[in-house]
């Protein structure tokens, strides 16, 4: 017994690892990211400490003396620096000339120090100039330190007189990386744009789900149910085409249909209508196309599920009802629909979750436009975290938005499980008792 | 008879020795270069590095070094995909050696350590770097450090379709004087809307085609903010001038209200926009100097100067006529071997030489980066580059290199889009922008 259990664990291990890596980890990472201020500017892998003019401006009031010290000219040709030059073993004349002619000179910037170095008789190469000037650097300006300790050590080494408290403030002000925060969530809660995006999402899911993924799918299933087998199969196959066509090509075909040199414009032109971009002409049009594009793709899954569920209904029930003189509508109402409760619930549940998370068709067709009219939550999260013109990708905020979606998904899943009475579905069959 | 084999043996040995000694100086290197927003006219952004590699190899050969550089080039036609690819690659430590991007990326990328300052590797006092316009070098700097080398300059003019302007009463002399009138402020944004309306009323262009702005987000829209008196940055701090932004938003809302701009203009297909502005389907529009190359090379507008007049962006209430330059810059990413980065820096330096850069300037209708470039015949004999340089460049502003500017930009664009499409009233949009700026940027932005 024990052996079989161990064996079971071993056999399930690859799947368990996959689940952890590809299902659990992304959610955990999204949750972690969502509590940070990560963006392009802060980087993901953690920040550095860099004393830059802007950081010093912020500290000017708090510690004017320290700021003064840090902004003082700090390229000094001193004996220690010249010894350093000797150590890097360049032409010996370089160190000699520096000692003889330039000892004690102070420069406000590296560029000015380098001008002197470039003027030496043994004219060093650009690379050597950089190596030499580094020996005379007595400032921490613009250098990047990977840790606080390195920054403090450098400050101490260069003889800056700074108290430990001041050092901490300096470290805080000069940190370039991200920090932990709950601000992303307050931004989501308070932004009117987010409310609009949420409304768009609800509208999108509700329209596609109700009009196509369930109703239209059911209609197709019933239509084909009453058809002879051969045309029914052909009909179902045709309805699968949107699902199996690569999405980019499929959406491109819609665009060709709708844009102002496309089919609709040409056709309407025959009746004297000026050509226009029907897809993006106004928000209503954009919504119409978004719903149609997604609906035609999504309807096929419901159609397949419902068709197979229909086949499971015993034919005798239909025959009996016909004998009793039932019309088609009565068959649908009293035989088909009552027995399709579970497939309908399943399709509704599955499609709600997939619609909530899907945005590729919208991205490819309207990019969320016109304006932000068709921007749904998942697309907004993508635009925030991974794709925008200004290039400042807000990973933290985007992750927070994604997390909201994950939470909504989990809540809905649990709700659906309750509706489905999952416990009864997985209960041990009575026959085995 | 034994001499020959001995000689043979010795010469083989010498050859092996020579090859090993040559190997000690040999360096085989692949330099990767990525460029954003790069179409068929902008190939020299990447090819210039190829030419530079050829030159650097020859220089190395003279010094007795065997340097072999292979340049791997990748052009991205858009910006979003490029910036996404670049930032994610850099975070994964697989960034290209050199990137060509908008200068505004220097702020965030430098702060997060994705790029390294080029001044650590090149001598800025030497030619050709000391010949590049100083203001462009400033634009390529952040926190007092030079991070990149300007790859090109440009500016963003307002274009008018001459035949339509004539049809609403402008004479040739009036059109000739138009750039001057815009510059001195006697032709304003209000006049522009009026002219656009006249074109529509006369049936010269369809409704919504009188003023046909850029159809996507872009730096252009900051020009309108400047036109209405706005300031982007002061003393290293971002500035949000509420009243100026309100006037700029109002301008677009008015354009839509008067019917000269389409309410749902944003997001239209790119090809359609280009075709329409280059064929007289639109009356007045704004674009960039590089548009000239596309109109002439791809869109079939052969007689550009006969059909189009270009000016600065006119002044609006409270502001002045202006244009914006948005230089792309060569940047070097971190995470590479120091020697390789140094070679990349040398390549950028050589690619910035006037003769090489002028190929890009003229082919793509961008503007030159240095004074010497304007003296090269290819450049000075080209009417477009010459006139655009003289008429626009002296009045050009640039967006600030500030790590938080991207955030400001996103929020500003969101507000503009909302007031343009009527999703929000102008007042509500500006108030929302103010609120969002306060909550996201706090004291990093001055609101007035």
TrEMBL record, chain A:
List the Pfam families hit by this protein, alphabetically. BPD_transp_1
InterPro entries attached to this UniProt entry: ABC_transporter_permease, MetI-like, MetI-like_sf
Locate the transmembrane regions by residue number. 7-35, 202-226, 238-257, 286-306, 342-359, 395-417
The record, for PROSITE patterns, names: ABC_TM1
Q: What is its main location?
A: membrane
Transmembrane is among the record's keywords: yes
Q: What keywords are annotated for this sequence in UniProt?
A: Cell membrane, Membrane, Plasmid, Transmembrane, Transmembrane helix, Transport
The record's annotation in PANTHER family points to: ABC TRANSPORTER PERMEASE PROTEIN, INNER MEMBRANE ABC TRANSPORTER PERMEASE PROTEIN YCJO
Q: Which family does it belong to?
A: Belongs to the binding-protein-dependent transport system permease family.
Protein name according to UniProt: Sugar ABC transporter permease
Q: Which organism is it from?
A: Rhizobium sullae (Rhizobium hedysari)
UniProtKB/TrEMBL annotation, chain B:
Q: What domain of life does the native source organism fall in?
A: Bacteria
One Pfam family matching this protein: SBP_bac_8
Tell me the InterPro entries matching this sequence: SBP
| SUPFAM superfamilies xrefs | Periplasmic binding protein-like II (SSF53850)
- Give a yes or no for keyword Ligase in this entry: no
Q: Which UniProt keywords apply?
A: Periplasm, Plasmid, Signal, Transport
Q: Is the keyword Lyase in the record?
A: no
Signal peptide region = 1-26
The UniProt similarity line reads: Belongs to the bacterial solute-binding protein 1 family.
Q: What is this protein called?
A: Extracellular solute-binding protein
- Name the source organism: Rhizobium sullae (Rhizobium hedysari)
């Amino acid at each position: 017994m024990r052996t079989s259990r161990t064996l079971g664990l071993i056999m399930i291990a690859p799947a368990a690892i996959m689940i952890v890596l590809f299902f659990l980890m992304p959610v955990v990472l999204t949750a972690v990211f969502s509590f940070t201020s990560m963006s392009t500017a802060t980087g993901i892998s953690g920040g550095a400490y860099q004393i830059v003019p802007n950081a010093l401006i912020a500290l000017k009031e708090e510690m004017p003396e320290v700021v003064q010290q840090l902004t003082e000219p700090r390229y000094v040709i001193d004996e220690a620096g010249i010894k350093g030059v000797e150590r890097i073993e360049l032409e010996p004349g370089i160190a000699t000339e520096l000692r003889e002619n330039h000892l004690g000179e102070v420069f406000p910037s590296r560029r000015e120090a380098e001008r002197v170095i470039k003027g030496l008789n043994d004219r060093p190469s650009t690379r050597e100039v950089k190596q030499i000037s580094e020996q005379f650097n007595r400032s921490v300006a613009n250098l990047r330190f990977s840790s606080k300790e390195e920054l403090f050590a450098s400050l101490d080494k260069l003889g800056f007189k700074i108290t430990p408290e001041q050092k901490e403030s300096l470290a805080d002000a000069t940190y370039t990386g991200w920090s932990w925060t709950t601000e992303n969530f307050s931004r989501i809660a308070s932004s009117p744009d987010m409310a609009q995006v949420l409304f768009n999402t609800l509208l999108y899911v509700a329209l596609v789900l109700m009009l196509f993924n369930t109703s239209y799918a059911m209609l197709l299933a019933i239509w084909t149910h009453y058809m002879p087998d051969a045309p029914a199969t052909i009909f179902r196959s045709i309805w699968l085409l949107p699902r199996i066509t690569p999405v980019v090509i499929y959406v491109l075909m819609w665009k060709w249909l709708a844009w102002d040199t496309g089919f609709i414009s040409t056709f309407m032109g025959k009746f004297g209508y000026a050509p226009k971009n029907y897809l993006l002409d106004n928000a209503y049009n954009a919504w119409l196309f978004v719903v149609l594009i997604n609906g035609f793709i999504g309807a096929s899954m419901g159609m397949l599920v419902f068709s197979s569920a229909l086949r499971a209904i015993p034919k005798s029930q239909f025959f009996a009802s016909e004998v009793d003189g039932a019309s088609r509508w009565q068959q649908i109402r009293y035989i088909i629909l009552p027995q399709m409760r579970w497939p309908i619930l399943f399709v509704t549940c599955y499609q709600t979750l997939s619609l909530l998370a899907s945005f590729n068709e919208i991205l490819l067709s309207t990019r969320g436009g016109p304006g932000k009219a068709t921007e749904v939550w998942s697309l907004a999260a993508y635009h925030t975290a991974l794709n925008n013109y200004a290039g400042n990708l807000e990973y933290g905020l985007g992750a927070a938005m994604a997390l909201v979606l994950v939470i909504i998904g989990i809540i809905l899943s649990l709700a659906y499980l309750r509706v489905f009475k999952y416990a009864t579905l997985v209960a041990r069959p009575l026959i085995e008792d | 008879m034994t001499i020959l084999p001995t000689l043979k043996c010795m010469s083989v040995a010498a050859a092996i020795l020579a090859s090993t000694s040559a190997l000690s100086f040999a360096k085989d290197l692949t330099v990767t270069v990525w460029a954003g927003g790069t179409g068929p006219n902008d190939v020299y952004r990447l090819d210039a590095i190829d030419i530079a590699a050829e030159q650097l190899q020859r220089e190395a050969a003279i010094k007795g070094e065997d340097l072999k550089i292979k340049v791997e080039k990748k052009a991205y036609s858009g910006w979003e995909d490029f910036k996404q690819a670049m930032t994610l690659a850099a975070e994964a430590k697989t960034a290209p050696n050199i990137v060509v991007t908008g200068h505004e990326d220097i702020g965030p990328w430098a702060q997060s350590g994705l790029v390294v300052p080029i001044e650590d590797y090149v001598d800025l006092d030497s030619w050709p770097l000391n010949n590049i316009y100083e203001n462009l070098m400033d634009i390529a700097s952040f926190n007092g450090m030079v991070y990149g080398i300007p790859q090109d300059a440009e500016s963003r003019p307002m274009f008018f379709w001459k035949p339509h302007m004539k049809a609403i009463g402008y004479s040739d002399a009036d059109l000739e004087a138009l750039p001057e009138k815009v510059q001195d402020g006697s032709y304003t944004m209000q006049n522009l809307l009026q002219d656009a309306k006249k074109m529509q009323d006369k049936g010269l262009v369809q409704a919504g085609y009188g003023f046909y702005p850029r159809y996507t987000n872009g730096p252009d829209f900051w020009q309108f903010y400047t036109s209405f008196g706005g300031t982007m940055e002061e003393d290293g701090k971002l500035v949000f001038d509420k009243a100026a932004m309100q006037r700029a938003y109002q301008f677009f809302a008015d354009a839509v209200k008067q019917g000269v701009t389409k309410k749902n203009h944003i997001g239209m297909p790119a090809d359609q926009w280009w075709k329409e502005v280059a064929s007289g389907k639109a009356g007045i529009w704004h674009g960039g100097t590089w548009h000239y190359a596309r109109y002439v090379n791809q869109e079939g507008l052969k007689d550009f100067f006969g059909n189009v007049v270009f000016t600065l962006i006119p002044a609006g209430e409270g502001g002045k006529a202006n244009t914006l330059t948005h230089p792309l810059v060569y940047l070097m990413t971190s995470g590479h071997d120091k020697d390789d980065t140094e070679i990349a820096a040398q390549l950028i330096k050589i690619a910035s030489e006037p003769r090489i850069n002028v190929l890009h300037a003229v082919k793509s209708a961008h503007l030159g980066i240095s004074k010497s470039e304007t003296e090269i015949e290819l450049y000075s004999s080209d009417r477009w580059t010459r006139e655009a340089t003289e008429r626009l460049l002296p009045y050009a502003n640039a967006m600030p290199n500030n790590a938080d500017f991207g955030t400001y930009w996103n929020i500003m664009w969101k507000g503009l889009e909302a007031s343009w499409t009527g999703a929000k009233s102008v007042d509500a949009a500006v108030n929302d922008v103010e609120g969002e700026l306060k909550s996201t940027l706090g004291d990093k932005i001055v609101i007035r």
